[in-house]
Amino acid sequence: MEENSDGQSYTVTCASCGQKTLIVKELYSKVPRFGMLVLISMICSNCGYRVFDSVSLEYKGPERIEFKVSGPKDLSAKVIRSTTSSIAIPELGIELKPGPRSDAFITNIEGLLDRFADVAEQLASSSEGILLEKANAALDKIRLAMDGKVPFTLIIEDESGNSAVVPEATEE
Ligand SMILES: [Zn+2]
User: Fold this and answer.
1) 46 alpha carbon to ligand 1 midpoint, in Å?
2) How many helices (H) and strands (E) does the chain have?
3) Would the CA dihedral through 133, 154, 76, 39 be positive or negative?
4) How far is the CA of 51 from the centre of ligand 1 (A)?
5) pLDDT digits (tens, 9 = 90+) for 104-157
6) What is the pTM of this model?
7) Can you tell me the distance from the alpha carbon of 99 to that of 141, in angstroms, rounded to the nearest whole number?
8) 1-58 in CATH: which number?
9) Residue 18: pLDDT above 60?
């Protein structure tokens, strides 16, 4: 991810409010073993409409990525998630499906677990009884995983092939 360029920025008509206030930014990134990736963010300064997506310049078709996390160093691997991908961590009972409001994001695995921990926390704070126990159990597992104490497998399935997991050590 070292070879980021500034890419382009331009303003177009917003699909939501119809004003010419939608700022589109494109960032090009060369991802090892993945190829060129365009990260696109669109934010409307008038109505707040926003879209964030990643598009691979080399179409690969549907793909399934399995990344094994066996210790703390693996937690720094970068995760590029497109809007069409689902994420699952079977060992932690986690599954994230693509939806109409899902955002693409780039984070590392630790950051991804942090997002899931937030969701589990919210769930715990609004639940009671068996649901509360389940949410707390999930939270405990996620925290252990964030400390690198639980090995797990990150599985990303993407019908557009626009997602990637990039280990820190093999960056070019
Ligand atoms: Zn707008």
Assistant:
1) 5
2) 2, 11
3) negative
4) 11
5) 777 899 999 998 898 889 888 998 998 899 889 989 999 999 999 999 999 999
6) 0.69
7) 25
8) 2.20.25
9) yes
Where do the structural domains in the chain lie, given as residue ranges?
A: 1-58, 60-172
Contact between residue 37 and residue 56 where contact means Cβ atoms under 8 Å apart = yes
Q: Are 49 and 17 in contact (CB under 8 A)?
A: yes
**119-134: per-residue pLDDT in tens?**
889 888 998 998 899 8
Distance 35 CA to ligand 1 centre (A): 32
Between the CA of 40 and the centroid of ligand 1 the distance, in Å, is: 16
Whether the CB-CB separation of 37 and 59 falls below 8 Å is answered with no
Q: Which fold has domain 60-172?
A: Jelly Rolls (2.60.120)
